[in-house]
Amino acid sequence: AKAIIRATRKGIEAWANGTYLEELGVKENICLAVALRRQELGLNVGDRRNLPVSVKTRIGFANVVIEEWVKHLLEEEPVCISIHGRTLKQLYTGFADWEAIGRAAQVIHTTPTLVAGNGDATSLADAQAKVTQYGVDGVLIGRASFGNPWVFTGHVASFKEKMAIALEHGRYLNRVVDERGFIRMRKHLVDYTKGFEGAKELRQKLMKITSLAELEAILLD
Asked: Could you tell me which residues are beta bridge partners of residue 138?
């Protein structure tokens, strides 16, 4: 783990010093996507800079060992350690152990490193409550954002808003993958249509799409 952190720092330094992704053998479509995004943001090569390195980890492999484990990570002085409150063995089953996250936060806060908790946060209000209760500096929201990026603002989106973002999502994905890869959009479309009465028929149509043109034909109809 320490070797990975050190290698990451070296990679960031190389990027900041002008190394191009193409020189590193990165796939052409990924290089293009990065270039397009930099263009959208108005960035150029001179804007490259060193970025702080953070670490995300779980509370343990099969058992909860996070209080001891973070001590090893802290030796590399990451700017932040994010902790998912399940063991690797659990994957996404059961519930996140926020008590373990809170105990680890106490260890981390003896250093300048920040700590973020992760797991089962369902809303912005829920995340804010966890910050207060468990003494973390922030909370990562994962699955609750699937099909609902507004979770980070507390806004409850309408069906029309969700379909507009689903279309924007599809158009962006189409820029970075070939047509064969576009079918991965289906799983996201399921999330965008959840919770709306009468969306079953629409969802069935969306589960058959294979291209952006098909998605546009359905959502722009």
From this structure: 116
Whether 59 contacts 85, CB under 8 Å: yes
**How far is Cα of residue 57 from the mean position of the Cα atoms in its chain?**
14
Half-sphere exposure of 36 (CA within 13 A, CB side): 11
Comparing 110 with 47, which gets the higher pLDDT? Answer: 110
Would you tell me how many other CB atoms lie within 10 Å of the CB of residue 103? Answer: 17
> Residue range 184-197: average pLDDT?
93
Is 87 exposed, middle or buried (CB count within 10 Å of its CB: 0-12, 13-18, 19+)?
A: buried
pLDDT, tens only, 144-161: 999 999 999 999 999 999
CA-based radius of gyration for the chain: 21
- What is the number of other CB atoms lying within 10 angstroms of the CB of residue 177? 15
The token duo for 84 is: 């998912």
- For 220, the 3-state DSSP assignment is coil
The first and second tokens of residue 51, run together, are 């970025």
pLDDT given for residue 45 in this prediction: 66
What are the tokens at 127?
Answer: 């995340």
53 or 26, higher pLDDT: 53
- CA pseudo-torsion sign 149, 154, 160, 164: negative
- 158 Rama class: left (phi>0) / alpha (psi -120 to 50) / beta: beta
Is the sign of the CA dihedral 152, 158, 163, 164 positive or negative? negative
pTM above 0.70, yes or no: yes
